[in-house]
Amino acid sequence: MAAKIRRPPSTHLPKSGLCSQPGQPSPRQNLGVLSYSVQLHDFQAFSCTSCGRCCRPWEVALEGTQRQAIEASQAYQARVKPNYVPLKVETPGVGQLQDRGDGHCTFLDLDNLCELHAELGGRSKPLGCQLFPYQTVRTPGGMFVYLSFGCPPVVAGQDRDLATNQRELDEALGDYTAPLLDTLEAPYLVDLTESTAIPWEGYRRLESDLLTAFAPAQPIRSCLLLAMSVLLADHTNHLELSRTFKTEDTDFALEILRKFASSMISVVENIDEDADRQALAAAVEAGETTSSPRFELSMPPLSLDEPNQDWLLEIYHRYFQNALLGKALLRSTVVGKLLVMASGFALTNFYAEAYRLTRELDTLDLQCVVDAFAITEFHLGAHSPAMAGYSQAMEETYSYIVGGLTNVAPSPSREEATSLDADTSP
User: Fold this and answer.
1) Is the pLDDT of residue 96 over 90?
2) Among residues 225, 267, 317, 407, which one has the fewest Cβ atoms lying within 10 Å of its Cβ?
3) Taking Cα atoms as reference points, which of 139, 127, 176 lies closest to residue 35?
């Protein structure tokens, strides 16, 4: 395994995976020539269908004179009311798009088109609005992107000429990419765990191994076991992603994942009272049939069984490839992101089945999966601050379990590990 750097908790890298160390050589001296063009893969082509699902009251970055242009627009002025502004700015460079009353951005018209875009042009919009569903990650190898599967055409694999996407991304990022990449400090480290980092080249080798070791027919189990394999590497300094865990160890790990997934569902459902949230989590974990208070769905028993539909497994495989090759793992720790993906697949299965039951369908269809991804991506994934603590909580729990397999830490009993946190909430 590549050389690791063990850090005390006070020196954790930022979640972007960047290590800022004054006095180190510049990235061009140490990291070679950086690519300012966005790195796209064939499966990342995308075509907007104007469904409006992404146009929500997000918090967005405001670049240059964007705020002034938006505030001077007719679309903005028409929406200003006493004690209400359509773009709220409390921190310089950051704006909060307001809700039009139904969960969508106030600038979205009834035809699901952006009025700012229509009046001022696409480049007038906040950069995040221009780029979505693409999310950017800057690295020594250039600027990479991964797609949000909260976007229906992304889930469906509805695409267009990749060259068009490349051109539009490069144009949108043209004023920002070079300055962003020029801020990279050397050495560039990637968070393996909350306490361990590896150099960029070591991560690229690990990334290739993860891509090869992923089992498309078992996305939940595969992400979980890959995370455990990386944790074993962290404990033993020997990377072996092909390691086979004992059946009882795997079953135990899945049992813990069920507890976390049940807790995540209770948070996604946005229940205010702790007692009610814990009661829902307990009911889901116990396999009881209940109802969704937030989405008004018939909720099935939580199952960690893998999908048996080839078309759904293809979507999950594409999701994994997108996250890995789009460098989404750099937005968290590698282990934390793999664990969140394992639970994310389980929750997507859960909500897709909930939609099937509610709609009284005989079999699962693509629309159920599209709607389930909208829940898991916007309320569990990269767009959800409420879930930020789960990555660390899961990593700590599984590190404790895996440590027992290597005699690095006392092997926890089933009762001890299950009770590490009674409701498994971060």
Assistant:
1) no
2) 407
3) 139
Contacts of 27 (CB under 8 A, 6+ apart): 34, 140, 181, 182, 184, 185, 186, 188
- Asked whether the bond before 57 is cis by omega within 30 degrees of 0, the reply is no
Its sign, for the CA torsion 291, 296, 300, 304, is negative
For the record, the structure tokens of 127 come out as 């950069």
Nearest-angstrom CA–CA distance, 203 and 138: 14
Instruction: Tally DSSP H helices, then E strands, for the chain.
Output: 17, 11
What is the Cα–Cα distance from 256 to 275, expressed in whole angstroms? 21
Residues across the chain: 426
Distance CA 160, CA 149 (A): 17
How deeply is 24 buried, as exposed, middle or buried, from its count of CB atoms within 10 A (0-12, 13-18, 19+)?
Answer: middle
**pTM of the predicted structure, to 2 decimals:** 0.84
Q: How is 200-223 classified by DSSP, letter by letter? A: HHHHHHHHHHHHHH--TT-HHHHH
Residue 131's beta-bridge partner residues?
none
Q: Which residue has the higher pLDDT, 226 or 175?
A: 226
DSSP run (H or E) holding 337: helix 334-358
188-216: b or e for each residue (b if 16 or more CB lie within 10 Å)?
A: bbbbbbbbbbbbbebbbebbebbeeebee
